[in-house]
Design goal:
The structure holds two protein chains of two kinds. By secondary structure, chain A is of the alpha+beta class. Chain A is 53% helix and 15% strand. In chain A, α11 packs antiparallel against α17 (490-523), α17 (490-523) packs antiparallel against α28 (848-874) and α18 (548-563) packs across α23 (719-733). By secondary structure, chain B is of the alpha+beta class. The chains are: A alpha+beta, B alpha+beta.
Chain lengths: 885, 115
Amino acid sequence: MRFFWSRRRMDADAAEELRAHLELLTERYIDGGMSPEEARAAATRQLGNVTRVREDIHEMNGFRLIDNLARDVRFAMRQAASNRVFALVVVITMALGIGANTAILSVAYSVLIKPLPYAEPDEIYAAEIIVPERRAQFPSLPATVQVFLAWQRAQTVFASITALTPWEASLTGDGEPERVGGASVAANFFSFLGAPIERGRAFLEEEGRPGKDRVVVISHSLWQRRYASDEAIVGRTVSINGEPFQVIGVAAPSLIVPTRTQLHPVIPFAARVDVWKPIAPTPATLNNESWDHGVLVRLRDPRQQSQGEQQMTALLIELARAQMPGVKTEASVHLVPVRDLYAAKVRRPLLLVVAAAMLLLAAACASIANVFLSRGASRSSEIAMRIALGASRGRIASQLFVETMLLAACGGAVGTVLAFYGTALLVTAAPPDVQVLSAASLNLPFLFSALAVTLMTGVLCGVVPVLQGGRRDPVTALKDAARTTPYRMGRARQTLVGIEMALATLLLASGALLLHSFVNVLNTDRGYDVDGILTVDLSLFGDRYKSPQARGVFYSELIGRVRAQPGVMAAGGINNLPAVSASDGPSRAILLPEDTDFAAVVLVRPVAMIRTVTTGYFAASGSQLRAGRTFGDSESGLVAVVSESLAARLWPGDSAINVVGRRIRQGGNLSIPLIEVIGVVGDAQPGGLDRDPVAALYRPYQQFPSGPMTLIVRTSQDPAVLAGSIKAEIRRMDPDLPITAMRTMRDVVSSTVAQRRFQMLLVSLFATVALLLGVVGVYGVTNYAVVCRTKEIGVRLALGATRRDVMRWAVAVGMWPVSVGLAAGLVGAALIANLFRATLFGVTPLDPLSFGGVAIVLLAAASLACYLPARRAGTVDPVLALRHE
Amino acid sequence: MAKGEAAKTDLLQGTLDLMVLQTLDTMGAMHGYGIARRIEQISDAMLKLNEGTVYTSLMRLLQSGWITASWGISENNRRARFYAITRSGRRQLAAEADKWDRLAGIIARLRSGEK
């Protein structure tokens, strides 16, 4: 092997030597008296097989393995080129199986398993307060600022404790006015999480006191986007909500904080949080009884969890007794791991998608096994021929192996690319509440295991059966091959098709159940109209809108101008859109006039979301008035409209008409005059229908003003068309006012069902691919049977079978595994559907529409796949078929 | 493929290699044709050789480093490749010849006992 690299020259040398040798020998024989012809013949005989010598020398100088491998690869490439359909099916199947599986698993890993980017994330827990009397309405509650302060002051179990609460920040002064999501956090927030600050510093302890708290930390993306990555940002003063704040730090891009309702269902953060300011409780904020502070604790030792819960419970009850001596409650505190904040809501839907991706990989493997088996069967005569010609079993095995590996390498390469882009696509397309995803990247161990599984399937089904077939006596094999294409592996392939069909059924049925649920969710009456409505989120701040009167004037002026726009049928405003979240904004306990002891009844009476509306809101939103009337332009007394569910809680058993005219108390302050109920409206459901409607008390804007408002504009035309003219109208009134968002109500609702849609789309996509694979399998099996048995069909036809009989036989070959697979798949789907019952909406796990639809689609597709080869079987000419030999 | 046949070739190969080495040791540098003639002459034309196999043998010895090769001009003015035994080639020859002699001795004794 020393001369591997110079073996071309070596060969030339040997050729020259052998030629010279031949000439010398010839000359010698001529000298000995032979004729030149005789001499040449004798010399050639004496020299022997020159080509063999050169070959030997060539091989001696080569790496046999490499040579053979190179030959096998070239052969495999020719094979793939000559049988493009086969190669393409294998590559695409593998790529889809690997790509989908790896992408989904990578995402699932980062959401469910990958450690959160905090210091010792397993030590962090979130506190939830459970008040038994409130459980029906609120399964759990976060803390008030006083509760947090009490815990912070007196707790001894935890290493540290921190809190955060939503804060809306309107940025002005640097370009376009802009509204971004923010949070007020305890001064130790960043050090508590162990979250790095990229530049500048985190908050100091003293910045958690009033007067020192005009400082903010901003997010990396806000710094890049709004401040153009200004190096001198730290120390700069920016205007937020009309007040000066000093930027003291920029958080690292890796920071993940709870968004939307991840921290707790009743404290909604923005979809992105870009600004943090310290919590600095003033006497005014301390009076605020809002349960809107999320509290995080760090346990020194996970075994201390119950000890921590007990201490927090004791401190909570102590505080409640001090504030309201009469209150008796069994309130308790529960600690949940911080991972659950991000993963709990998405765990089930995500696991369902993971299961679907696994089923798809299994279907891909069955499909690969099937095509390889069919290929092996059709090549058995070729292999027999080669064994008869003296090829060693090892050589044939290695060649088949190389062929399989070449296809696998192509499939794996395409699959890797798919997995890479699939992961990226999932991260961007995922619903925003799956925020941990932004850190998701292609997970190599999952990629390699998917590659390994498909590869092993290929090798097992592409090499082993062929070799076993080759073990037969080559003479018999060749005789067989000469006569007909032997029908082999038929049973194994039928089984595989059955498995493919079962998997496809499972996926299709799951997809159908999810689709049916999704359609139900979209079509459910939410208590307001979804189409033909534009929503505009606005927030008034700064000196100009300091007084409620100024804000009221602004809104009524604006609504008046909007109503004057062509195409506008109605317009109104509400502080918190029920579609976005069931429990945004202020809430109060609602008392009856006879309730004089607040402490005695506070836990018995319902808590209602207080929704502030302008006149015209109910008409614009399409709310249904059950009884009474809605607000007029000016109301003389204190009035309210209640939602049906609030009325039912306050006056169980009374009809809506009887409720009108009754009086209620908003909150526990007995000095506030009673409010008269003037109307009852239908409940407004949250867009995603994922929670029960929350009891709501509607107050007219003049009597209960609020800062932020969402404008509701009902139009006869496409609502998106109105956006431009309304924006212009707002700009005309105040060029500095940030418009947080302008969306159609359809978009608002659509975004609340994003997770459901995402899940439904992925499962349906996988189901479609699995169905395609299955149909290809059915076609392959039927077609193969028909081709192999052309002669038999000819005999049958000659003996009197009708074409119909023959076609029936061919269809049966394909449909038999299909029906078994379908039955097995439907049973499996029923079992799985029971597991994800919670994900379904308005559909029973045995939904006849979904299951029936799946059966029909599957049978139709499979019948078509059987019919094509069956028709060919029916047109066999018996004379030709019998002469075919 | 019969196994016995392969074994026979192996034996022949080894024997031929030994003959070629011995020839080069005795005669000095030679080309392939000369080696073939020398073996023919020594064996009194008893050994009918496929003379091409001499070159296979020479390549084997080259690979083992027991001989070297260089192009030169032959006695009758042709370009020819001359092979010469190396120092390690001589060591190998001594070892092989020794083994061969002992084997020949054993066989001779066995045959004489048989009589």
